[in-house]
Each structure stands twice: as structure tokens, then as C-alpha cells.
UniProtKB/TrEMBL annotation:
The keyword Zinc applies. One of its GO terms (biological process) is base-excision repair. One of its GO terms (molecular function) is metal ion binding. Residues 128-148 are annotated as: Disordered. Zn(2+) binds at C14, H26, H181, C185. This is DNA-3-methyladenine glycosylase I. The lineage of its organism: Bacteria, Bacillati, Actinomycetota, Actinomycetes, Propionibacteriales. It comes from the Bacteria. InterPro entries: Adenine_glyco, DNA-3mA_glycosylase, DNA_glycosylase, Tag. Keywords: Metal-binding, Zinc.
Length: 196
């Protein structure tokens, strides 16, 4: 159990955002709305790569992911060949998990198929909840929600992989669809979707 931490700069933060590079991520990105297919596809893929690992591991490798997945350009990722997958499996700059690498390619192809139905952004935002948690302590943080479960199910039906309810809840947190900055954190309300 942990509440906000008063940092040396006088700002109250979520306890996980106390040290770099997590502090910069917490202070500038986490909980901020993401717009556009490529940007949202990146977050979806990175959350999938993070499954079972720490976010710090993925954050430290994020720039390499951006390089090898062509800036998360959906069409280019969808076009990855089996030889490309093998090349990625040999790249020490990313997490070399075949299922996750193949899921990125599969998810790119599924994202292309969603374009005729409004696109990835509309699909994900369409599963946003009507209320957000108001956790004062880390023990009050949910790991999933009815909405993240529904999003997970809907994405799987559309051919996506590595989009379980917990992973989709993390995506909702990272992109401001829910606000789980702790009450008292100076970043609470940053999405503009929810009051501080």
C-alpha cells in the first residue's frame, strides 16, 4: 500500500513515478490521450510486449521497437515477412518473444481490417467507461474493468492477439481512457476526460 509521494521538486506523484526514466514517462505521457492510428497501434503493441514483464523493461527498449517496427506504421508492420520475424527474433534490442512479435504483425493486419468500421481509435475509445476510479492508495488500483474485458473480447473477435483484459486496462490507463493517477498526484486529470 502506498499513497502519493512528495518528490524533491515539491510535486506529489504516484509512487511508481519517483525515479527516472519512469518519472519522465509519468510526468509527460502516462494518462495523456493518444490520437491517430499509428500512435494508438504503438501503445497497443507495447502493452502486449509488456505482458508478464515490467513496464520499465519495455520503456527502456521503446526506441528500438520504434526502429524495428517502422515507427509502428500499420501497413509496414502488416507487411512483415516470416524472414522479418526471424530477424526480429535475433535482435537483442527488443524482447525476443516469437508469439509477441507475430502478434504485432497480426494486430497490424487486424487494424487495417478495422479501417472500414471507423478505425482502431474509434474502436478502442468506444469501449471507454462512463466513470473512472479515484484511488487514493495503490491498493485501490484495479487490474481490469468490465470495459477492458469487453474491449479484450471485441478485439479478439476481430483477430487481435495479446489483448487480454489486464493488458487492455493498462492501455486505457496509458491513454487516458481511465485516470488512475492517485488522488493528490499532480498529474491527476491530465487527460482532460476526467476531473482532477
Amino acid at each position: 500500500m502506498s499513497t502519493v509521494v512528495l518528490s524533491g521538486d515539491g510535486l506529489a506523484r504516484c509512487p511508481w513515478g519517483e525515479t527516472e526514466p519512469l518519472r519522465s514517462y509519468h510526468d509527460t505521457e502516462w494518462g495523456v490521450p493518444v490520437r491517430g492510428e499509428s500512435a494508438l497501434f504503438e501503445r497497443l503493441c507495447l502493452e502486449g510486449f509488456q505482458a508478464g514483464l515490467s513496464w520499465l523493461t519495455i520503456l527502456n527498449k521503446r526506441e528500438r521497437y520504434r526502429e524495428v517496427f517502422h515507427g509502428f506504421d500499420v501497413d509496414r508492420v502488416a507487411a512483415l515477412s516470416d524472414a522479418d520475424v526471424e530477424r526480429l527474433m535475433a535482435d537483442p534490442g527488443i524482447v525476443r518473444n516469437r508469439a509477441k512479435i507475430e502478434a504485432a504483425r497480426r494486430n497490424a493486419r487486424a487494424t487495417i481490417a478495422l479501417r472500414d468500421d471507423g478505425g482502431l481509435e474509434d474502436f478502442i475509445v468506444g469501449h471507454a467507461p462512463d466513470v473512472t476510479p479515484t484511488p487514493a492508495d495503490t491498493s485501490e488500483l484495479p487490474g481490469s474493468s468490465p470495459e477492458s474485458k469487453a474491449l479484450s473480447t471485441a478485439l479478439k473477435k476481430r483477430g487481435f492477439a495479446f489483448v487480454g483484459p489486464t493488458t487492455m486496462y493498462a492501455l486505457m490507463e496509458a491513454t487516458g481512457l481511465v485516470d488512475t493517477h492517485l488522488v493528490g498526484c499532480f498529474r491527476r486529470g491530465v487527460s482532460g476526460r476526467w476531473p482532477a
